[in-house]
Amino acid sequence: MDSHIAAVPLDKAYRLINHGPTILVSAQHNGVQNVMAASWACALDFSPPKLTVVLDKSVKTRELIEQSARFVIQVPTVAQLELTSRVGSLSLYSDPDKLAHCGVNLFEIEGQSLPFVTGCSAWLACTLIPEPHNQTTYDLFIGEVTGAWADTRVFKDGHWQFETADPAWRSLHYIAGGHYYAIGEALDVSENTHS
Amino acid sequence: MDSHIAAVPLDKAYRLINHGPTILVSAQHNGVQNVMAASWACALDFSPPKLTVVLDKSVKTRELIEQSARFVIQVPTVAQLELTSRVGSLSLYSDPDKLAHCGVNLFEIEGQSLPFVTGCSAWLACTLIPEPHNQTTYDLFIGEVTGAWADTRVFKDGHWQFETADPAWRSLHYIAGGHYYAIGEALDVSENTHS
């Protein structure tokens, strides 16, 4: 594991996605690994941390998650803009070499049988909380976060460091039609207002 | 209604929250109106458009939504940073004059019996899709979007205009402890990549 990657305490894991970034979902089962992009992921609880992610019935990653009951939600960076767009467009069903064609490299974290995408800023290892009605009716999946990590060059001491980190580390926020925004300027509310 | 506010076609309503902004939730019942801030709101479907929002059992707005089955999700701006922080901190339970103390002004949209917050950049009128298990177990509420509007000074022709609009219109992305980021620079992926 890259020496810049550090564990994030579970009670602060929600902060990794609280600002609404576009994320990458990865999973593996029986030797098949896949990665997709998704905008519709959201924190659901603080402790134990949970999150929701919407996975269309057409995507291979959904099948891998239904089979393995585990997945990773990770936060891609501006440096990974093309990679993010490609894994969101190509399907493993039509291109068995999708990950290579998208420039995706995976790494392992000890004790986790999950594929982590190299170069992201943060990773949340999740265990599926089976909710068949939500999954079937809404394509809505709930995960409990069992481990969290971040690259200390952009997330340190429980806080994002976008204002001082290299701009290539900024998170991506997708709209539609290949159009994204990067996260921007930091704004702080004084303590007496935010009681 | 302000002349800058225009209806957004329902099939493009998801774009109003696709970039993961912090939002305001408003609702009313029996003459009681309330507004709260939330980070945990997310698109759920394109057509008909649906969304999810997490509402803690302690908040008055949840009670109003359970009673009226309707609510508004709206996107506050950098100009509304203090307002957003205040409605996220004060409770109507402890301060019956919360809205006045937070500087919130409400307006109406014809045909909608809902309270809309003045000065936001976008509004999504929602009807609750009752899912008692999700609501009780996860504080997770699902809404179908029945109407959408945006201020044309920052959202026009189906697209956010953050790159050209006054910076005061940028969306807010909350982390924790009074710390927010504004949305930033636009990034586009070339068409042949984003097939």
From TrEMBL, chains A, B:
Domain of life: Bacteria
InterPro entries: Flavin_Rdtase-like_dom (IPR002563), Flavoredoxin (IPR052174), Split_barrel_FMN-bd (IPR012349)
Stretches assigned to the Flavin reductase like domain: 15-157
Pfam families: Flavin_Reduct
Keyword list, A-Z: Flavoprotein
MF (Gene Ontology): FMN binding; oxidoreductase activity, acting on the CH-NH group of donors, NAD or NADP as acceptor
Cofactor entry: FMN
Keyword field contains Flavoprotein: yes
Family: Belongs to the flavoredoxin family.
Annotated protein name in UniProt: Flavin reductase
Organism: Pseudomonas helleri
